[in-house]
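User: Design a sequence. Structure:
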């Protein structure tokens, strides 16, 4: 048999809240019922999700998750981010719901990925579709790059932001003369993002302030352009 389709069925405390959130991301409602139990189906192009309501369900305790494989994670993240900005005035990076940024995952052969954590606490894990002729990813070079790669796995894949913070704080506490300034910048911005996810606005503000004191040459500034965009988004969210 061919052309089979698997659709995840995920829990939530309110299908109305889930529908409202996914509409922000560009989904439409394909099905909704209240009896004999509340459930709903949602669709965005080829992406299908279904949800069922559990009274009193705690999103913080959810183990709901699914994988989404797409040929262009950047475009999908951009579309989701635009929807969030239009609805909320910012990209949601803390609490439930929220969304992480596209980053390379060393536990996925270096492919990029990001996650959407919806109002039911479900992790919708978006990964880049591997090229058919893809070569093995190189291991991160340098202590800062290795620390960042490990932190991304823990926070963005496992959901353990606190352990990721420990890794980044340890790396930042031991500066070395040969540290790559662009990776240093990326760590500071990611540390600020994790601080916001943990509702630590003071640390987020401190990390973004430290970004301004990093000196970059022209080539490094060009490399760091995407990270500066993230920093600007985080600064706007803090205001």
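Assistant: Done.
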């Amino acid at each position: 048999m061919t052309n089979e389709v698997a659709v995840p069925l995920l829990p939530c405390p309110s299908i109305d809240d889930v529908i409202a959130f996914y509409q922000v991301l560009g989904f439409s409602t394909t099905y909704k019922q209240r009896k004999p139990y509340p459930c709903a189906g949602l669709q965005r192009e080829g992406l299908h999700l279904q949800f069922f309501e559990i009274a009193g369900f705690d999103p913080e305790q959810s183990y709901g998750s699914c994988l989404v494989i797409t040929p262009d994670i950047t475009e999908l993240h951009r579309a989701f981010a635009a929807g969030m900005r239009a609805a909320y005035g910012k990209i949601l990076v803390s609490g439930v719901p929220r969304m992480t940024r596209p980053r390379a995952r060393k536990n996925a052969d270096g492919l990029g990925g990001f996650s959407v954590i919806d109002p039911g606490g479900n992790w919708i894990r978006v990964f880049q579709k591997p090229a058919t002729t893809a070569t093995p990813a190189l291991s991160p070079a340098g202590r800062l790059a290795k620390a960042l790669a490990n932190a991304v796995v823990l926070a963005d894949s496992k959901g353990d932001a606190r352990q990721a913070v420990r890794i980044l704080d340890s790396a930042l506490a031991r500066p070395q003369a040969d540290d790559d300034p662009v990776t240093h910048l990326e760590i500071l911005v990611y540390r600020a993002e994790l601080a916001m996810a943990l509702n630590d606005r003071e640390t987020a503000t401190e990390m973004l302030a430290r970004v301004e004191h990093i000196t970059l040459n022209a080539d490094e500034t060009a490399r760091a352009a995407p990270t500066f965009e993230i920093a600007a988004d985080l600064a706007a969210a803090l205001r």
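The longest strand covers residues 47-53. The radius of gyration is 19 Å.
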